[in-house]
Amino acid sequence: MATAFSFELVSPEKLILSGEADEVIVPGSEGYFTVMANHAPLMSTIRPGIVEVKMTDGETHSIFVKGGFADVSPSGFTLLAELATPVADLSAEDLDKHISDADEAATNAKTDAAKEAAIQLSNQLKEVKAAL
């Protein structure tokens, strides 16, 4: 049996998920990574994608995150998401709106860096949509 650790997923609006987890798979800025008990301390930005959470009671959760920040410490794992929606509640129309917003931000960007960031966000959101 895997050792559990404390996990919280928080959005600006509310606490999305909190409890003891066996494993969490996260879309990090440099690629997906897995957090388990006794993981080395880590801070990372997260990109749009699906967070997969396996709770100690066997329940699993798949949650779309638009981006945010991950903090793994000896006391547990906190994921602060810009936006978080359970995959079961996510529609193609929701993703299309986020993609459209990112495309508009790229069109209206005042700097090359802002334009590149918006294009990257749009591409990541399109990957998420294709995976669903």
Topology of helices and strands:
Layout: E1 5-10, E2 15-28, E3 31-36, E4 42-46, E5 49-55, E6 60-65, E7 68-73, E8 76-81, E9 84-86, H1 92-108, H2 112-131
Parallel strand pairs: 1-8
Antiparallel strand pairs: 1-2, 2-3, 2-5, 4-7, 5-6, 6-9, 7-8
Helix pairs in contact: 1-2
CATH superfamily of the largest domain: F0F1 ATP synthase delta/epsilon subunit, N-terminal
Percent strand equals 35-45%
**Structural class given helices, strands, pairing?**
alpha+beta
How many strand elements? 9
C-alpha geometry:
globular
Low-confidence stretches: none
Number of helices: 2
Write down the oligomeric state. Answer: single chain
Task: Return the CATH class of the largest domain.
Answer: Mainly Beta
H and E order: EEEEEEEEEHH
Query: Roughly what is the average pLDDT, rounded to an integer?
Result: 91
Radius of gyration: 15 Å
Report the sheet with the most strands, covering strand number, pairing sense and barrel closure.
Answer: 9 strands, mixed
Determine the CATH topology of the largest domain: ATP Synthase, domain 1
Task: Give the CATH architecture of the largest domain.
Answer: Sandwich
Compute the number of structural domains. 2
What does this structure look like?
This protein is of the alpha+beta class and 132 residues long. The chain has two domains: 5-87, ATP Synthase, domain 1; 91-131. 28% of the residues lie in helices and 45% in strands. The chain contains two helices and nine strands; from the N terminus they run βββββββββαα. The chain has helices at residues 92-108, 112-131; strands spanning 5-10, 15-28, 31-36, 42-46, 49-55, 60-65, 68-73, 76-81, 84-86. Strands 1, 2, 3, 4, 5, 6, 7, 8 and 9 form a nine-stranded mixed β-sheet that branches. A hairpin with a 4-residue loop joins strand 5 and strand 6. The protein is globular, with a radius of gyration of 15 Å.
